[in-house]
Write the structure tokens for this entry.
Amino acid sequence: MAAPVRLDHRLSLVYDLYDECDLAADIGTDHAHLPAALLQRGRCQHMILTDISPDALNNARSEIIRCRLSDRADLRLGDGLAPLRDDECCNMISITGMGGRSIRDILLSGTGKLHGAGLILSAHTDWYLIRQALNEIGYTPDREEPCFHAGRYYLVLRARPGTRKMTERELRLGGPLFMSESPVLLPFLARRREILSVQLSGLVSSTEPDPEKAALLRDDMLYLEQKIHQLQHKEGSM
């Protein structure tokens, strides 16, 4: 029997947000640790693993073979959602380990391959672009969970088809994020506020300041401060 697959903090969070399902796809699978764990533990019965890199797909194949999961995993070479067949209906699709711009482009170019699948998305950067793409394709996040791994913060979003579009503030700062019960939510929000503060300082000292953008940054900083104070009060009263 193959040794159980071990997941880091970020991939463990992605795993936890997966629904139990018959068919799922992991896009940009790389080392295949996530799909191997999903199959090994019975969260998913069958999975499609894709990657644009032949070397990465070979690494994934080695992991699937090591875990003796070849009969339940279909490995395909290709970019984004392109390797999924038009008539293939996945219950869940995960896209992680990329920048927000890349995930945005994958979603917009492959919308016809989604077929209402639940989406789990994790980016290093540009969460605004991901939320904006979700708005465009008719999806709404129902979970936004932060985590801290290898010295940096990550955000994992789960989204489903929905009719409610996110507001501009939700696009920038998040919606379900503020309902998260993650132990790192407070430091995550504090770090986001710090980043906005740095952006504001750079904008104010610029030779071409943008008063409208500066006002928006100040408004977002105030909103985050209010949320941080609410969470601190909640923790103090428990």
